[in-house]
């Protein structure tokens, strides 16, 4: 049975991923309702509904009549996405897209990392509801965020100081996707409800190793003056997990877990299945990657 999706609610629309998803949804002329904790400014074409994310009742009232709900929140509250999923199931929402946007959720070991606890809980929840025919779901697997990873330093590169922090030997090739491509792919899922039914979809802008990204960066900024360190990720992971257990939590506590995955082929590698064509994405070539690096470097000056 085919379904036409027109009315879409999105949570987390002011975030890095959510803002791109919202823009892509509006470009495709969906009727969009933004679920927001406060009355923030959003594009005029979107309807804004202020909701209490701690209340299934509030969420349920806000998403009544929606064909799809997209969660792009990254709250540390593991229960928040589960309440949204329950509200969607109660209201007969056809499609739910969870806030995954990372590595292959079906790959053994990925969702066992504590940093991915809320993603694991959300995946298990939508599968449970789908098994009882209460909703359908999609997850978007996009690897690491290419543009954000380079600009924020998460990818291990400091463009201004010419420093490179390499995860392991730096040779593991993994998917990287720009935020704009993630937004476009997520919105396009709703144009292909049957092809994306109850499964992860796999997209990428590039498949590259950290060393290849560093080489591209040197091609833009020059080879001279770089300080490069290669780091054993095992003790870094052990320290991060110990800090987490002891309640010593910082951004690096979670970043190291993801960086460990990116260095480990068993946890991160090029997709066996590729949904780029289905979801309207084209793979980037090296020159486009260099253009992105140049743009980020210029903005950082």
UniProtKB/TrEMBL annotation:
Name the UniProt record assigns to this protein: NmrA-like domain-containing protein
Which Pfam family name is an example for this entry? NmrA
| Segments crossing the lipid bilayer | none
- Keyword annotations: NADP, Oxidoreductase
Domain NmrA-like residue range list: 6-223
Q: Which domain of life is it from?
A: Eukaryota
Q: Note the SUPFAM superfamilies from the entry.
A: NAD(P)-binding Rossmann-fold domains
Q: What CDD domains does the entry give?
A: PCBER_SDR_a
The terms under GO molecular function for this entry are: oxidoreductase activity
For the keyword NADP, the answer is yes
